[in-house]
Model the fold of this input.
Amino acid sequence: MIKNNHFKIKNDGFTLIEVVISLSISVLIFILLTQVYLLAQSTYKETDARAEITQNGRVILDRMIREIRQTPDIITQIPTTAVEPIPSEIMFQDGHDISQIRYIRYFLSGTDIKRQVIIYYFPSAPTYYVHVYDTDEPLPHNPPIQQILEEKIIGEYVSDIEFYGGQLLNINLYLSRNGQTSIISTAVYGRNL
Amino acid sequence: MFYVPCSMIYSYKQFSSGFALITSIFIMLLMLTLGLYATSFVLTEMKISGSQSNSVKTYYLAESGIAEAIWRIKNDAAWKNGFEGSAAWSVDFTRNSALYPAGSYRIQISNTEKAKGNIIVTATLGLDGTVSQRVVKTNVYKAMGESVIGQNGEFADGNIDMSGSNLHVYNGGFFSNGNIIINFWSNIIADGDVQAVGNINVNQSSHITASSTRDRSSTPPPISIAMPAVSFDDAGDPLSYKSRANHIYTAKQFSDLLFANRNKTLTLNGINYVTGAAEILYNNDLIINGALVADGNITVGKDYAPCVLLLLFGWSTFSDITINNDGSGAPSGLLSKGRIDFETCLGSFNGKGLIYANDFVKILSIPKKFDLTGALIGRKITLTSLWEGVNLTYDNTMVNNAIGLALFSPIVTVEHWEEEY
Done:
């Protein structure tokens, strides 16, 4: 009698249906959790990308606005309205350091915004910087030689940049990374123009 | 062979019944909680990221509003006249569809005084079903061309001493970073304010009439004004007087020029720069159509003895000085890196321009009228025995022409910048 009871207890496990149901629930939960994890991961990447492009946009615009606000002369021909072709670069005279004539150029190179510091001089006086539109004497009035003093990346993840307007210069900055896009628009008043 | 007692097996079976179910439910709840937390975390992150991105866009929208406000103050006639013309001027302007279809900004400007005001720009941007707002405040000030010495016909970094003198300052007052001392039957009249950072001492025998008198005992006391600098011969400065000079003389050359024109009237045009002292003796009449500038001292009407001696014989040898300004914005006057002395043998003085000395200006015993339209600036100013009197008419343009304005000085200056959300 005791022996029989012992045998019965040994065979008292999960049925096949129980195992199948519990496995199915486990798989569903696993899939659900995986989805949540993947969603979190992709959202993290999206927010990271958005924060990155926003930060880049801010760095680019802050620096550009500060220098355009002070410039006495914009060299690039800027259309007054947002009608194609809208230039994606701007060159202007440095208004902060007026001890020598220097130019600053912002332009799109791939997905980077680069900033160049440019000077112009005549071979006869290489340490005396002149305006980009100056010509030397005598005839045939040669233009000055251009020299790039500095070229640096200011910001990344830029798909396009547009400049238009008059003294109140509009700037549209298009940023993109990992499928995230952002357009930041602003206007700056060149008070010395 | 080992057998478990029947009673023990039975109690174990009783204990384990339903354990798997409870454990499963517990684990599922735990997982669900984790899942919900992760989802909530993700949603919050997305909202934060979205609002950060929008807030940056709105900030630049507000900044473009500030740019438009300053542009309008400078270029829109109605705004310009209101801003520069009235202390009570204000404007409230809204631009819709600004830079973004759902972007707008409101510009509010209110003047605190003429040509000085606060700008508040409130930018609103609707994006992705949310609306973000940024407020940017700034103060703007436009220099209205008042000279660096204020509305003062006479300015001294040190003391102003007046003794036995009559002085009338028209269209302004006078200012000293030190003391103003008036004594020995002096009579001083000023249309504007008489101010001293130190003390104003008026002797009982003397009298002063002014719009107001303020010294260190006043509330509030006058704030000192920095002595304006003049670029005489700064190397590499294209605006220095030496760089702009039409004629440059050594002290000897200038002396010879005066000697060659003794008892005659010598006319000097433009900027005349002397790289030493410039001494105008008793027998030289001078017409200066511009400025006489000297590295050394300038002395006018020097040599008391011979001029008085000749006067005894009925021969007037006083030097009459006339300074003209052509109205083109060019500087005019007498400017010295050292001191300027007007001495007894100066005849009549009629000048339009600035008298400026890095050291002191001394006007002593002039027998004739001394009329100056412009201003008098010196480290120290002494007026003695001017019974005929000095008439000084403050002229802002003459001061600005002579001292000059800073390169690239912005007309509208942003003084302060502050953001709000």
Remarks:
- The two ends of chain B are 82 Å apart (CA to CA).
- The longest strand of chain B covers residues 370-394.
